[in-house]
Each structure stands twice: as C-alpha cells, then as structure tokens.
Amino acid sequence: MNTAQLKNYAPTARRAFIQAVSSRAARLGITAKEIKPADLVGDVLMIGGEAFPRSIASPRRALVEKIKTKGFDVAMEALAYTWFNRFVAIRYMELHNYLDHGVRVLSHPENKGYPEILDHATDVDLPTLDKARAIELKLDGTKDEELYALLLKAQCNALHSAMPFLFEPVGGEDELVLPANLLHTDSLIRHLVESTDEALWENIEIIGWLYQFYISEKKDQVIGKVVKSEDIPAATQLFTPNWIVKYMVQNSLGAQWLATYPQSPLKVQMEYYIEPAEQTDEVNEQLAAITPAQLNPEELTLIDPASGSGHILVEAYELFKAIYLERGYRQRDVAQLILEKNLFGLDIDERAAQLTGFALMMKGRADDRRLFERGLKLNVMALVDSTDFDAEALAKGVELGNYGLQPGDLRSLKQLFEHATTFGSLIQVPEELDEKLPALKKLSEVTIPDLFVAEGLKRLGPLVQQAELLAAQYDAVVANPPYMGNKGMNSIVKKFAQDHFADAKSDLFACFIERGFALLNAIGYNAMVTMESWMFLSSYENFRFTVLQQHTLRNLAHFPYDGKRPTAMGINFGVAVISAMNIQLPKFVGHYCCSRYFELDDYGVPFEFPTPNERLNCVAADEFKKVPGSPVAYWISDKLRQVFEDGSFLGELVEARQGMATADNNQFLRRWFEVSETKNCYSARSREEAIESTAKWFPYNKGGEFRKWYGNHDFLVNWEDDGRDLFAFKPRSVIRSPEYYFQQSISWSDVTSGLPSFRLYKAGFIHDVTGMSAFKFVGVDRNFLIAFCNTPIVLAITRAINPTLHFQIGDFIKIPFLEDFARSHLPVVREKVKWLFNASSLDWDAYERSWDFKSLPILTSSPEPTPTLESSYTA
C-alpha cells in the first residue's frame, strides 16, 4: 500500500480532532485552565451566564470527573480519538456498502460537496432517528448542520448493537464534544474524505496505517525518554508490514496445520511459508509423537497479546477461513466461527482495541452480509485497571460463599490488575486465582437490584474476562510486541520486569517472547517480530539460553541494520522474526535467512522469499551452543564452529579491560596541539613515572575511526598528580582499571559501523571507555595476536559473537585462538607485524595530525642530495 497520503493526513487529523473536541468542551465552560460551575435552574443548566438544556448536566459531570482523574489533555485526546475512529469506521463501511441503508454518511457518490445522507434525511432507515425532528429540520432548509448531527448520532447508535466496543450509545460525554461545523468546506469530515483516495480504502490494512500515523507525533514526543504509563502505547506501537505478518501467521498456525495435513492445498497459497528442513530419523520420530493425527478447526486458537490495530488477527482470519473452507464449511458460516472461537486479542490501548474489533468485523462482514445482526461477541479487549473496582464493598454486598468464593479472591483479582493498562498481557494469572475464575465469572453474570452491588458486578465483569484470556493456553501466539529498553521504562514497569522476567528484563519485547511461550499449550507455536539484540548481546545470554534449551526455533528471518537504510520494518535497528515451537527438540534443524540476500520492492516487500540458495541456512539449535554465549549465529561455517571448540579464548591469554569515563570531556580532555609541551608527558611507563614527570597532560586512547596497527593519537587527558582532579570528580567520573594505565596494549574502538580494527599502543597511554584495550601478554605474543585480530578470520568470529555496531570487552575475550598454529608461524608473522607497524606509524606521523610530525613526505622523498620541490614531486 502506498501510504504517502495517510502519512500526511493522519498527524494533522489528530491535531484537528483534539482542537475540535477541546473547542466543544470550552463552549461548556471546560478548559485546561478552569472548569466553570454549572447550576440547574428549572429545565436549563446555567454555565457562565449561558443556558443549556438540562439533559447535558449528567454527561457534563461525567466529563468533568474524567478530566479530574486523567487530566484535561489526556481526556481531550481520548475523546478526539473516539470520534476519529468512528469517522474512519463509517468511511470504510460506506465505501464497501456495509451500511444497511446503502447511503453514504460522510461523502456523496457524485462528489456534491455534502454527505449523501442529507438527500435521504426523511426516508433513511435508522432505528433511533427522530424522524419528526429530521423532517422538521429538513423542511426548514437552514438547519443542515443540526440535521446532520442528528443523522450522524443516529448512525452511530445504529452500529452500537453490532460493534458496542466502538460505537457506544451516543449520549454520554462523547456526544457533548461531537465536533461542530461538520458540513463546512474545511471540516474534519471533508478533510478525511478529500485527503485520502477512495482506492486506499479497498483493503482493511488502511486502518492499521491510519492508526500508526495518527500516533506518530505523540510517539516522537515521548520516544527516547522515560515513558509515562499513559504514553506507552504511543511509544511502543509499530505497524507490521503485511508480508511479515503473513510470514508469522503462515509459519505458526499454517505450520501447525500442515504438520498434521502435509498434503493440504493450503501450502501453495501460503507464499511465505517455509518448508521444514530435512531432519534426522530421531527428530522425525519426535515430531510424529507430538503431531496430532487430526485437527478440528473450531478448536484451534490464536492470540495476539499486543494486538494494536489488529493487523495480525486480520491475516490470521484469512488463514482460518482457508482452513475452514478446505474442511467443507460454508463461507457464510465461517465468519462467526472464526470471530467467536479462533481469534483472541489484547492491548493496553482502548482505541487500538476498538480498531482491532472493527477490522475483524469488516473481515467477517465481507463473508457474511448478515453478520451485524448475529449479536456475536469478539474475544478482543483493551485491558482495564482495577482502580475503580471496590472489592471490599462487593464482598459485603454479595454472599460469596454461595459461589465458592472468599473476599480474598476479589482482593487478589483487584491487586493483579492494579496496573493492567501499563503491564498489559505480561500479567500472569496465579494458579490459585485461575482456579477461581469459573466462580468469579458466574458471580459477574448475576443480576442484583442493589445499585452499589450492581456497579461492583459491572466492574468485575471485564476483570474476569481479561483474566480468562490471560490464563488460557493457545495453539499459536503471534505478535509484534512493544519495544522498550530499560532506559525508557518508568519505575513501575522496570520493577515489574525485574520481578517477573529476570532474564528478559532488558527490553519489553524479550519479556513478551517469554510471556508468549507461557500463553501456549505444550505443542503451540510462538511467532513474533522482535529486535535482533536478543540473538547476540550478553545481556540476553540467560534468556537466549532458556529459549534454546526449552523451546525450538523452527525458522527465523533476520533483518540486520547496516547503519545506512531502514530495515524492512522501516526502522533504524535490526529486527528478527521468529517462529518457535513450545517444545524442545535440540537436534531440530531450523531455517534461517537474512535480508541482506533478498531484494525488496519500493514498498519493502521481497521480490522472492526466501532466496532459494545457500543463503537459506539450515542449523540445529545445538550448534549455537558451541559459540560462547550461544549467539544465534546461524551463518557461520562448521569449520568456524570447530575453532570455537578447539581454541583457547583470548580471555584466558590476556587481560582485557575497559578504561576511564571522565564524565566531562570538555573539562578533562584536550587535543594534543591545544596543550603547552611544557605541561605534557608522552613517555611515562607507569603511574609512578607520571607523578615524577610533574606533567598535567598525558596521551589518551579514545578509540577513534577505523585504523589498523598504529594511530588515532589525538587526545590528552588531565592526569596531574595521579589523577587528582578526576578522582575528585567522582562519582561522576569512573576511573576503571588504573593499574593498567601507561602499559603497552592492543586496542580497538567500541563502535564499529564498518570493520573492526586493532592497533598497537606503546607504553604511555591511559585508555578510555571506548578505547578498550588488552594488556599482559603472558599467554600469547603481542605481535602475533594483533596480526590475528586484524585478519578476516577474526572479523567472521566477531560477527558471530556480536554482529551489532558495538564490539566490547565481553566480545573480545570470547575470541578463540589456536595456540599451536600461532607457535608454528610466530617468526614470520612477528616480522610482518613489525613492518606493518612501522609503515602505519610513518603514515600517521607524515602529517600535522601527529605530535611526532617532522616533515611532509613530499619534501623528503627526493633521492637527490639537494632535493627541490620539483624533484620530490617527481619522486
């Protein structure tokens, strides 16, 4: 889909809708600065000296309470979002002729500049429309705005029975802020209709893209900061391209179906399905033991625990439909079965859940024109907090013993969901509470005339429903979970992750992978699109080990970020799309492919997927364990894995250390040419010699750009009197490994957007946190080691250990080294390194950038006894 128009429209629409509902609230005496008092006087409500109908008193009070609880801006944004979603939904339905009366509500098929429904105001069939009033307004001829508002409200009410999650009965605080002037040429409706071509509305995918772009500005405002709970949806939502959604659904639900029915004709319809690799007899026997002999489509279940706008569930609907049709079901019967029995979704964003429900209803309506009349109930919901649920009051008002319940059961439920809109599907229902859910559900369905008890039961219902969804086990979990690193988590999210997901706490996406497995039955499939970091980084080592030890990676599509162009997800960091089985088959050979080897069209869709050549790697998970830290390095050769098994690790042969972090480089660092030579020292071999020199400034190894063998000698650091000023600057400054200062070393830079490069440093340097270094070459010759480190072999090894932009101490010490090979080649290699070191140092010193610079090469290259510029240039 070409999303350019949507990207331009949605952000401006968000601002306009917020402004529109805020203006309506201001008309009622409600602004961000003040809430004017409202007094009932007979049949009118007086606000700031102006009279309003008495009927608005109750919804205005509700709006005021919402503002007091959530704040003015949050309340206005929510109401704006509600009306935006409704207009978008009506627009989609009118273009697909899904409105029962067959009349357009927002536009005119003949582009007359006003909605078609105005032409039919006196005869349109809307059950709650006050026809007498509609006729009166139509005949007046001057009250089209009021007439249109009447028709629009009636249309929303007509859709309530089919989609109550999106179209609540108009009459609450949302009606109070219905945007005004909807028939103007610059109205919100005209903007929606004219800014997006009708062709874009052919596919339900438009709903997801509109949602993505609608929240894009809010996302920009909060990203990179500690995120408040109410901003988590905006900070973490990311729309998944359709082909990646298909890949996940087809390699989870589809894979499960084909495992039981390998000859199913569905295989040829699933363009992104990956055929399993050839397995050993042992693995085939294990697979046969866990594969059901037959499957009942009505019993298969799939949940998206972070459903967003419903894109994944919409695609799953299509596959479920194909499964049902293959089994001989009638198409008109399929929609209700899928929506009520197969698909489940949860999200923390109420507006996103509304769109999910709407998208699914539209898929069903396309297959069953009577769907809206069937009164079906979707298994999709936005989680709700339990703040307003008074467990104690309900326990006193109901005889809990009649239901096999205790007051503690209600308290446990309330406590579990205290922060449901923050933690979302990561919440796990304790076993003892799970056992009480049938009784709690029975209680929530009781009708009791007492108003306070009835209110408590009303609030109990959603809590029980979400507990049931979170406690259930599914055949497939498919999601694009939220991405939020530890730095972005607020305090309660951070603590929750630490308490419940100790190995995955570094990022929410990893927590969701772990939670996904817990939501599965014993042989279910977990398919998610996540950041690639869990595959390699040491912070995920325990998590990675658990995934490989307890589950089975069936296939993985890897989209590494090259530092230049966005990945297929349209983002500037690497992602990995996994499909994993909940059971462990250690010798199962999975399929792994990398986006570097398939081309994408202008919309980010592969021309061919996967590329049918040697780049589709087939690896058993057991092989990953041969590399320290078990990185998912699927591309390395068997020979290279053998090196990891046979070699000694560099961490056993040298001392590798991170260096200093000054915390204020402007204060403590200088370029070498900024310092008087009388105050610096380049030759200290120890901290004692540095003190004796009485110098203030000393060479500082700060890493730097790509350069092998020698160089990047740019900075000096204030280490006067053994670092007196830096030690005084603690705890902001961090003085790491001072016992290694001024010693000779091998060093490299942390950030390696290109190739890693290693350099020899003579004695005299202090090293920085980004100029990581190795010292004490007792177990290996220093010259041979740097030669080895600067070979393509180590490049391949480092990319296996950690192919991200960073290469740190923890990665260096995992490099395997073949000592026998080194000993047999030491003499010749040592001489080569001396030559390379000298050549590189001459090159560095040949220019004014070096503190050892003496003369430009062009002035000293002539062989003549008395060189001239001409002879030097010729030479």
Record the SSE blueprint:
Elements: H1 4-27, E1 38-41, E2 44-47, E3 50-53, H2 57-70, H3 72-95, H4 131-140, H5 144-158, H6 173-176, H7 188-195, H8 205-214, H9 216-222, H10 232-236, H11 242-250, H12 253-260, H13 266-269, H14 281-290, E4 302-304, H15 311-326, H16 331-342, E5 343-347, H17 350-367, E6 380-382, H18 391-397, H19 407-416, H20 420-423, H21 431-434, H22 437-444, H23 451-471, E7 474-479, H24 491-500, H25 508-518, E8 520-531, H26 541-550, E9 552-559, E10 575-581, E11 589-594, E12 617-620, H27 621-624, H28 638-646, E13 648-649, H29 650-653, E14 655-657, H30 665-668, E15 669-671, H31 687-693, E16 697-701, E17 715-718, H32 720-728, E18 745-748, E19 758-761, E20 766-767, E21 773-775, H33 782-789, H34 792-801, H35 809-812, E22 816-817, H36 819-845, H37 869-874
Parallel strand pairs: 4-5, 4-7, 5-6, 7-8, 9-11, 16-20
Antiparallel strand pairs: 1-2, 2-3, 8-10, 9-10, 11-12, 13-22, 14-21, 15-17, 16-17, 18-19, 18-21
Helix pairs in contact: 1-3, 1-7, 1-8, 2-3, 3-17, 4-5, 11-15, 15-16, 15-17, 16-17, 18-19, 18-23, 22-23, 33-36
Give an overview of the whole structure.
The protein has 875 residues and is an alpha/beta fold. Helix content is 43%, strand content 11%. It is built from 37 helices and 22 strands. The strands form five sheets. It has a nine-stranded mixed β-sheet with strand order 6-5-4-7-8-10-9-11-12, with helices on both faces. A four-stranded antiparallel β-sheet has the order 14-21-18-19. A four-stranded mixed β-sheet has the order 15-17-16-20. Helix 18 (391-397) packs antiparallel against helix 19 (407-416) and helix 18 packs across helix 23 (451-471). It is globular and about 110 Å long. The model has no long low-confidence stretch (mean pLDDT 90).
